[in-house]
Amino acid sequence: MGSVLQAVALFLYLWFDSLVSLYLISALFGLFQGGIVPMYAIIVRQYFSPAETGTRLGIVLMATLVGMALAAGCPA
Fold first, then answer.
1. Count of C-beta atoms within a 10 Å radius of residue 44
2. What angle do CA 62, 55, 63 make, to 5 degrees?
3. CB burial class (10 A; 0-12, 13-18, 19+) of residue 67?
4. Where are the strands (E) in 1-76, listed by range?
5. CB–CB of 38/61 below 8 Å?
6. How far apart are CA 54 and CA 42, in angstroms?
7. Could you give the C-alpha distances from 60 to 10, 11, 14, 39, 55, in angstroms and in order?
8. CA distances (Å), origin 52, targets 58, 64, 65
9. What digits encode the pLDDT tens for the residues 30-76?
10. d(CA 40, CA 44)
């Protein structure tokens, strides 16, 4: 559900081009992402032991951030 809402927020950028709409849509996107990222800890904890949770969660978050950084650096 959170990923679908993020996609909807991204598509809203296509129809609006003012500064106010940029802020509003960005706030929506951040709100929707804020619902997804905390779930990483719950998912990792569900599949791995408590001793491994910190390391695994660090790897998952690092991979997420690297993916976002690569996507942001791609030429449009």
1. 19
2. 15
3. exposed
4. none
5. no
6. 12
7. 23, 26, 30, 11, 9
8. 10, 18, 20
9. 888 887 888 888 888 898 888 888 899 899 889 988 988 888 777 75
10. 6
Q: Tokens 């779930």, residue?
A: 39
Do residues 55 and 48 touch, judged by C-beta distance below 8 A? Answer: no
**pTM score, two decimals?**
0.60
Look up residue 18 and give its DSSP letter.
S
Cβ–Cβ < 8 Å for 57, 44: yes
Paired tokens of 76:
């449009």
